[in-house]
Amino acid sequence: MKEMTKKTAVVAMAGIMAAGMLTGCGEKKLDGSKTVATVDGTEIPLGVVSLSVRDGQMQTEAMYRSYMGGSDFDIWDTEAEKGKTYGEQLVEQALEDVELMYIMKEKAADYDVELTDDDEKAIEEAAASFMEANSDEAIADLAVTEDQVKTFLELETYKQRIHDPIIADVDKDVSDEEAQQSSFSYVSISTADLSDDEIKQKKEDAQKIQDELTKDPEGDFDEIAKSVDDSYSSLEGTFDANDTSDDEDSENEDSEEDSSTSSSTYPDEVIKVLRTLDDGEVAPDVIETDTAYYVVKLNQKNDEEATETKKESIISTREQDLYTETTDKWMEDADIKEEKKVLKTLKVTDNHKYNQPTATPEPTEEAADTTEDTEVTETPEADATETPEVTEAASATTTPEATEAASATTTPEATEAPSYSTDTSLTVKDGDTVNIDYVGKIDGTAFDRGSTDGKGTDLVIGSGSYIDNFEDQLVGAHPGDEVEVIPANPDVPVTPEQPTDPVNPDTPQQPSDGNVNNEQQPSEDQTESSEEKNKTQEQEKNTQDSEHKMTNEELVKRQQIVSLPEYEEDFRFWTVAKKYAFAKEELSIVEEMKDGAKEVGKLSKDGVCYILQEENDGWLFVESGDVRGFVKTEQVILGDEADQIVQKLTEEAKKEAKEQKKTYKGIAKLLTEATPSVPESENGAFFHTRSTVKQTVVDKVYAFCNADFVTIHEDKNTESRAVGTLNKDNICYILADENAEFVYVESGDVRGFVENKFLDTDKKEKKKAEKSLLTQATAAASALKNTKEVISLFPTTKTAADQNDDIDKIISNKVSATGEDQFVTAQEVVKPAENAACYYTLTSVKSGVPNGELRTSIVQFASQFIGNPYVWGGTSLTNGADCSGFVQSIYAQYGYTLPRVAEDQAQYGTKIPVEEAQPGDLIFYARNGYIYHVVMYAGNGETVEAQSSRTGIVHGTVNTNNAVWAVRILEDTPSTVSGIYGSDISEVNATLLQYGQSLGTFKITHYCGGSCCNDEWAGVTATGAPLVEGDTIAVDPTVIPYGTKVIINGHIFTATDCGGAIKGNRIDVFVNDHNRANQLGVYYTDVYVLK
After folding, report:
1. Which residues are registered as beta bridge partners of 35?
2. Which of 372, 419, 520, 828 is deepest in the core (most CB within 10 A)?
3. Residues near 659 by Cβ (< 8 Å), separated by ≥ 6?
4. Residues 832/838, Cβ–Cβ less than 8 Å
5. Which helix (H) or strand (E) is 529 found in, with range?
6. Can you give the pTM of this predicted structure?
């Protein structure tokens, strides 16, 4: 013990007193010189105990943080037991620890433990370093002197040094019989909190696993489990081979064992069956317990490795027992007197915390030796493969609609690298890389940029890079052959599956160059003649073609086409973008569009309202605060003048935020909204339209009812009318007032108020879990002071993040595990239309029906491009697109990513009968069982489509003879409506949960749609998307790809444009007015990806 190194002697300082670690602020200043206790006549100053308290505090918080994650938690003011907080418990424990350390110092000589001169020097240096590193204020909070720091370090060093001598005489002889462990594999299927039907299903699953494992005991247990349900998996366990349940001593030992090796980890029913089995034997039946079904297999009755581990555990337990018995006896025999009043001045609260620093410890001598002896294996560099020069890419916008005859010649000359074989006996097969030259022709005439011009291009057979059947028709050819490639349907447009550039989808990748890349030479048995091989290939191809051909009726029968239920008109609303208007003078908002109508709200001069709909005869339907109704156009400021007011308010809000060093959060607090004159439920204008500028569809916050016959009230009191009822374990969703006495909930079609005490929520369950974890953490930290082995106190099967997520979402995880539709919702007593509680907020977890506004918008947007050309392979709305490229690009502007070709698009979304199509749905045409065309339905039997190279993009009519089914992609929910029409760029419309990855700091500028900012590109974006204020931004697409949604100062924008000066970390934000663009100026801010 006397040979301990300097670093070991002051290990306590490294662990708890790193430079500058003290943070937080204390309450009343302590007097560290006061005596808080005496041990056998030796006085203990409060300053030493203060250090011990902060040591314990740091260890407990570190332990707690490892399970909870983060650092923002309140634990010390929590009541641990009646009349005592965890903070008070910690102080008492710290004093007891210091008292024991003083005794250990007294007993040290009995165990030949002493501190060397080097130890004393190291302690002096460490104490001085600590005093120098911490501020005067921090030292004052601790109420500690340098001498007290040295005393504390001496005590900690004695405590560590005396540990091994105390346990040196422990009996380390453990018999094989005492430690013998058996190992087994098992699948556990939980039945906790399940219905009878669900338990029945779980039992059937367990029986299936049991039957399969019985058939094949040597089979992969895990695969067998997952074959029944992918959520099941096999686990490994061990248990005491010898039944020692009647041995009291053994029971005491087991109670301290690592849970991973203790029989008590598993139900008695399981252990009882396992003890009857032989090695490799499967239990004869499924084992049923109160909370689960088990399928088990005994692996080894005597697992030697597990037995050795158990021996170590038993020895460790004996050592801990001896250490505890010895130190407890010392404490009992010592003469200890405590000054409770002095102790009470030392407090641990949530206002005084420790932030443990991240430090890189110096390696110990042992670690250094290990490093020197470790052999480092150098990883060889990978062989570099030369890449051939890239040939000039053809423009996607001039790719032909269809190739009547494309001559593809496999060039015999080998290219540089990679090398290609020109052996004419080789046959092209699926998966080969070939180098081809081709000439594309329409009506026998080659078209511009429809060929490789003799430069050759690489093609992987089977990659699907070219038009349908192109690659198939090259299979069986030989180097040097000329093949005439005919499209599958020469009389209709054929859409190629060409890979697109991630930045500009209008530019397909240029196929490269190639003879057959097949270096393996044919063996003797592969030398059949080319004629025989061609014949074989042709037979195989004819067989494949015959299998593929079918009628349209057969094609439709193979699909899952469903009739979607119609939405019911109820009290749901949907969110639209804000369109500002300001009152010229004080005005009344009225219930109907007529003079003298009932007033439903008052709006003061300069007060704001939002136009929801422009009506006839100069009336506007508006919303302002909680008021909805009608005003006359002449009563409000509209259009550009309103935008100027918004801009002025924006500048004021930004200036104020800058002066106060706060984050700019929009102009809402500068706006005055209307005052209601009548309750919403008495306002007849409330349902004139279902649109609102407020967020209506909210994330689901789950709650379960914890009692039977709970009333959902119409108002926030028990005297109000019952509008619905909940029973125990019924599910509901919290819409508002989660922490109030009455919580506003929705369950099924019932909305109203429930007393908080009857609801179990994630927050409530988290508090329960936190208290349980805190109790464990406190116990673990306490144990840490008395033993080196605390591993068994906390299982480490989950990361801190996993554990934190578990306790954050106990209720939510329960719903996810079972399925939301498995829970019962409230019973309706009053219809929604008659329930005043429905109007308490506009929010709901259900989506509103946007009344076709989104569908009308997408059809109108698509119609802007009528007259633009049809270009085979194209996806540009302005320069040209084919049928699938057209709908793909249209939908991309609305946030949907469709597959590239019509055949794949036909399988995207929900397939519905053609006759049920709504505007915006896609309708697909087929011939001979092959999808060849897609159109966007516009309503009334009409379409918007990229029809052909002769007609371009047109308004057409549905071809009912060839239409096979429609696909619904648009979600009739408000989440897709908001933002489509743009909004004020200063509006904060992103929630905290929507912030994704930070892209860094960007320079923000502004531009308009005129030629002054766009030259010849005025009025159009680089992607063909419309210029929309509040949505459009120009970016460097190499930094932010087109279509990316980003958050700038709380507002969501879409990257759809670029500019010659927009390079690197710069973004140009579109606004409608050039003067406003100049006024907004230039600034720098952080930009985030929208989740």
Report:
1. 45
2. 828
3. none
4. yes
5. none
6. 0.39
| 144 alpha carbon, distance to own chain's centre | 47
Integer Cα distance of 762 and 809 in angstroms: 5
Confidence of residue 851 (pLDDT cuts 50, 70, 90): very low
Name the amino acid, one letter, at 1026: P
Alpha-carbon distance of 1071 to 1053, in angstroms, equals 12
Pairing mode of beta strands 750-755, 759-761: unpaired
Sign of CA dihedral 587, 592, 598, 600: negative
Q: Which amino acid is at 776?
A: Q
Give yes or no for residue 405 having a pLDDT over 70. Answer: no
Q: Residue 310: what are its φ and ψ, rounded to 5°?
A: -65, -35
Rounded distance between C-alpha atoms, residue 1053 and residue 52, angstroms: 54
Closest CA to 926 of 939, 915, 914, 916: 914
Beta-carbon contacts of 721 under 8 Å, excluding residues fewer than 6 positions away, are 713, 714, 715, 830
Tokens of 427: 């046959």
Q: Label residue 520 exposed, middle or buried (CB < 10 Å: 0-12, 13-18, 19+).
A: exposed
Asked if 725 and 710 touch (Cβ cutoff 8 Å), the reply is yes
C-alpha 547/C-alpha 541 separation (Å) is: 10
Q: Positive or negative CA dihedral for 631, 635, 637, 639?
A: positive
| Interval 340-350 mean pLDDT | 85
Q: Report the b/e string of 992-1015 with b at 16+ CB within 10 A.
A: eeeeeeebeebebbbbbbeeebbe
Q: Are 556 and 930 in contact (CB under 8 A)?
A: no
What is the Rg, in whole angstroms, of the alpha carbon atoms belonging to the chain?
Answer: 38
Question: Are 507 and 393 a contacting pair, CB within 8 Å?
Answer: yes
Contact residues for 651 (Cβ-Cβ < 8 A; gap 6+): 1079
> How far apart are the C-alpha atoms of 1 and 159, rounded to whole Å?
12
222 torsion bin: left (phi>0), alpha (psi -120 to 50), beta (else): alpha
Task: Give the number of other CB atoms < 10 A from CB of residue 828.
Answer: 16
C-alpha distances in Å from residue 976, one per residue of 52, 841, 853, 1052: 58, 21, 10, 13
Helix, strand, coil percentages in the chain from 3-state DSSP, rounded to 5 = 35, 20, 45
Minimum mean pLDDT range among 328-342, 420-434, 755-769, 974-988: 974-988
pLDDT digits (tens, 9 = 90+) for 622-648: 999 989 999 999 999 998 898 889 888
Does the structure show a pLDDT above 60 at 353? no
Does residue 785 have a pLDDT over 60? no
